[in-house]
Amino acid sequence: MGEMLVGIYVFVLATLAGREVITKVPPTLHTPLMSGANAISGISIVGALVVSSQVDSGLAQWLGGFAIALAMVNVVGGFMVTDRMLEMFKKG
Amino acid sequence: MNLSMAVELSYLLSSVLFVIGLKRLQSPATARGGNQLAALAMLIAIVATLLDNQIADWTTIIVAMTVGTIIGGFAARMVQMTEMPELVGIFNGFGGAASALVAAAELIRLQSLGASSPVGEGLSIVLSCLIGTVTFSGSFIAFGKLKGLVSGNPITFPLQKTLNAVLFLGILVFGGAIMGLFQIGNLTALNTFYIFTAAAIALGILLVIPIGGADMPVVISLLNSYSGLAASAAGFVIGSNVLIISGALVGASGLILTLIMCKAMNRSLGNVAFGAFGGESTGGVQGDDSEKIARSVDPEGAAMILAYAQSVIVVPGYGLAVAQAQHELRKVIDNLEERGVDVKYAIHPVAGRMPGHMNVLLAEADVPYDKLFDLDEINDDFDRTDVVLVVGANDVVNPEAHNPQSVIAGMPILDVDKAKSVIVMKRSLSTGFAGIDNPLFYMAHTSMLFGDAKESMNDLVREVRDA
After folding, report:
1. Domain count, chain A
2. Which InterPro entries did the record assign (chain A) (predicted)?
């Protein structure tokens, strides 16, 4: 239970940090914020890679590979489309 | 310093860069750099993971990463700015699915070892799979609603809430069973897990179908939050702090946006989620039909009103996105500005189908962001404004919100009726999403310019030039 408790600490503190940072994002950037956050949630690729590296056959390998591909769509697509949007935000 | 220490420090660096990257989104001037910083953080995390693990099979990993990169890159390049809600919607689903699959793969791996596992591990797997799967199936329904593949109206049927409750209870029971079986290293945990996953898919679908199209900003934000929480839960599964931290950041972001959207509609999250609000079928209670005459105007007349005004405020809505008329709108405004008209844009938080939807459309059309104003910033300016041009917006400018008897009572609206004159560009007099009539259309100082926003804008460009 010790490791889990540390994880909960980390989770709660990160949530608070996220709240502090994100409440100050102006409405004009809310769509890029969402797509950027979306790309960050693709961090599950790390989990997918860890699981995939531990198996070399069977269903678990398929699921791991599938998870890698989906998370990668999120990461690459999310950051790229956010960049495309933010490039358009110009000052008058 | 050994390798695993270096890897752990890389994960820490990634986490810090994610926070700094998000912080830079606080200003449009630094936002692009912030996003790139977050992308760098992701790259560091991925490289560290690849270095840290004894990869048994590189082929799967390389193929999967290549496929994901191609699909993601293609989607990001091809998507139109008007389709951002759909793209973000489906990406939420992918993120959720990835986290659920991580949990599933880990469960199967542990099962194949036949080892018993502590309660904490079982709980993390169950949670990660539940949240990830609900995000996945819910996001696909949301995507279908945005695309028009699934009806945008709330879909309800008898005993819907009872079914949801039963499903939820079933999920609790099966989730508990998985944890129990898992703990004693029982192989039947896997079969239970499949039923559990099927129930979670059904729950995701049932939670989103009763929510109407115009409530999509709330749904997309909430699913965004879930996709983060799913990643966090996957972090607990594999014991990785970088997943827990990044997931928590996304979870917080989505939740904050959800609450902002709810506030902008003066509704609680519970009401949005379970209220089955809106839809065209809600007509009927119209009040008195007498004396309601909307004054229609042709593009020439509208151009005259606009061209001889001193100040104009543009109020864009979802109709602008549907007609993809943002570039044409920009041309009209350019012409007006050349004539010396002062033009501003008023953006309601729930205009469009996702938070900030209108801002992105206007940014695409090269409208400088310092001409865009929030509800609070601009609402006092309307009574000092000559003309308001409403483009494809309805409920967000409906004065009925000030009527305590109305279904939208208390919703903060843009008080466009206070301007000297109002031009509403709309296809017809039909009701907005809330299903109620808009008295604004029948006011003496309102002119309706009927038609497709794009065509009307093209006419307006010509007429303003000639005016």
Report:
1. 1
2. NADP_transhyd_a_C
The pLDDT value given to residue A65: 93
- Split at pLDDT 50, 70, 90, the class of B277 is low
Statement to judge: residues B218 and B259 lie in one domain: yes
Return d(Cα B126, Cα B175) in angstroms, integer: 6
Q: Is residue A23 part of a domain?
A: no
Active-site residue B342, yes or no?
no
Nearest to A75 among B42, B56, B360 (CB): B42
Residue that is written with structure tokens 């793969």 in the block = B105
Same domain, B456 and B356: yes
The complex scores an ipTM of: 0.96
Amino acid at B358: M
d(CA B22, CA B116): 40
Of B240, B274, B308, the residue that ends a domain is: B274
Give residue A53's pLDDT band: very low, low, confident or very high (50, 70, 90): confident
Instruction: Check B242 against A43: CB less than 8 A apart.
Output: yes
Kindly write down the DSSP assignment for every residue of B283-351, as one continuous string: TT-----TT--PPB--HHHHHHHHHT-SEEEEEE-HHHHHHT-HHHHHHHHHHHHHTT-EEEEEE-TTS
CA distance, residue A4 to nearest chain B CA (Å): 7
The residue segments making up the domain with residue B218 are 79-274
Examine the domain organization and report whether B376 and B238 are in the same domain.
no
Per annotation, catalytic residue among B395, B415, B417, B459: B395
Counted domains in chain B: 2
User: At residue B283, does pLDDT exceed 60?
Assistant: no
* CATH number (domain holding residue B403): 3.40.50.1220
Backbone phi, then psi, for B422, in 5-degree steps? -130, 130
Residue B350 lies in a domain: yes
Q: Which amino acid belongs to residue B417?
A: D
Determine, yes or no, domain membership for A45.
Answer: yes
- Record: contact A27-B374, CB cut-off 8 A: yes
The better pLDDT of the pair B96, B405 is held by B96
User: How many other CB atoms are found less than 10 A from the CB of residue B59?
Assistant: 9
Q: Which residue in chain A is spatially nearest to B369 when comparing CA positions?
A: A91
B368-418 per-position pLDDT tens digit:
988 999 999 999 999 999 999 999 888 899 998 888 888 888 889 999 999
Tell me which residue range forms the domain holding A57: 28-88
Measured between CA atoms, how close is A52 to chain B, in angstroms? 7
Residue B63, domain member (yes or no):
no
Same domain for B183 and B331?
no
Contacting residues of B for A1, CB less than 8 Å apart = 118, 120
Residues of B in contact with A59 (CB under 8 A): 108
Nearest to B109 among A54, A73, A84 (CB): A54
Structure confidence by residue, pLDDT tens digits, B178-215: 877 776 666 677 788 888 999 999 999 998 888 887 78
Residue A79 forms part of a structural domain: yes
- B55 to chain A: closest CA residue: A53
Query: Is A48 within the bounds of a domain?
Result: yes
In this structure, are B236 and B358 located in the same domain? no
